[in-house]
């Protein structure tokens, strides 16, 4: 699971207050780095979709938070250095084994072989 | 696809049908791969994405990643969801580029509003119409799927869902829940006159009401159209009280010749001599 996916993922357990399922806490036992071709246009387009505070928190918990500024600086679209660092954190850092935790309900979604298990029991849907 | 002529949804839930053996078939059966790739191509085409712009897409029922591979080839990034862990294991083996989630889309699409620039689904949505558990209500699951999908898509984007509806009631149920969830759009049918080639693509728009793309293979030549119009006129003459033409009458002969023409057989032209009463010595 890449950090880009994690940043956009929420818990869909029924009955949560709006926004109560985000962000999912990460507890990683295995993380890997996989090279991905850099595409500046794509990374720049994703910046508005990314929740920056959650990204920083997630990246730091995995030990990759030091490369990112506290906020994307205006004019980031043309700052290649920033985009490359963001590309690395969003697309090249992958959680292979671990757990995602829903903040409000406490439901745990295990991650195996890089795949989060988002299945819910019927009572939770 | 296993059991040709029978619908896989009748055999059981998808997570059991798509076991390791079935998943292996998907990677080895070249015909299956070809069909799935073609449908993925068509679905991405129907998405109407801006040219030369890498997008972030959702693949519903991504399975072993056949459709996802095509999305990657087109330069887009994607996340796939599937309920079968066996199929996802194959996707991991094949080292697909998209991120994968083990999930039941009938429980909803667990993403923040406006996440995706588009969504495709190949041969998956009809599985939502089956109640595999006592607690399942297909209309509820369909609505949960469509309403959360609607929210997870960016304004102005589309969802293109290729599916195999069992019958028109199922098609209506699916479309109704999609409209209830806020989508506009409709069904695009490719090759409507061919039993084998016919494909259904549910084309849904978020926000902006778009023009529904045309299905392939739906155009008629002028000759065909005039023949069709002619046939419609003739038809009203053919019916007697029982709704059938009297056997051997001129009407019956003309009807039979039309039937044979439609089957592609060589038929003599209709003239004033067709079905004319012959001299009694016959």
Automatic annotation (TrEMBL), chain B:
S-adenosyl-L-methionine-dependent methyltransferase that specifically methylates the N(7) position of a guanine in 18S rRNA. Requires the methyltransferase adapter protein TRM112 for full rRNA methyltransferase activity. Involved in the pre-rRNA processing steps leading to small-subunit rRNA production independently of its RNA-modifying catalytic activity. Important for biogenesis end export of the 40S ribosomal subunit independent on its methyltransferase activity. Locus-specific steroid receptor coactivator. InterPro entries: Bud23-like, Bud23_C, Methyltransf_11, SAM-dependent_MTases_sf. It catalyses: a guanosine in 18S rRNA + S-adenosyl-L-methionine = an N(7)-methylguanosine in 18S rRNA + S-adenosyl-L-homocysteine. This is 18S rRNA (guanine-N(7))-methyltransferase. Its main location: cytoplasm. It comes from the Eukaryota. Residues 238-247 have a biased composition (Basic residues). Residues 238-282 are annotated as: Disordered. PANTHER family: 18S RRNA (GUANINE-N(7))-METHYLTRANSFERASE-RELATED, METHYLTRANSFERASE-RELATED. GO terms for cellular component: cytoplasm; nucleolus. Keywords: Cytoplasm, Methyltransferase, Nucleus, S-adenosyl-L-methionine, Transferase. Residues 58-133 form the Methyltransferase type domain. The gene is WBSCR22. GO terms for molecular function: rRNA (guanine) methyltransferase activity. The keyword Cytoplasm applies. One of its GO terms (biological process) is rRNA (guanine-N7)-methylation. Heterodimer with TRMT112; this heterodimerization is necessary for the metabolic stability and activity of the catalytic subunit BUD23. Interacts with GRIP1. Gene3D superfamilies: Vaccinia Virus protein VP39. Belongs to the class I-like SAM-binding methyltransferase superfamily. BUD23/WBSCR22 family. Residues 204-279 form the 18S rRNA (guanine(1575)-N(7))-methyltransferase Bud23 C-terminal domain. Residues 248-257, 264-273 have a biased composition (Basic and acidic residues). It is found in: Cytoplasm; Nucleus.
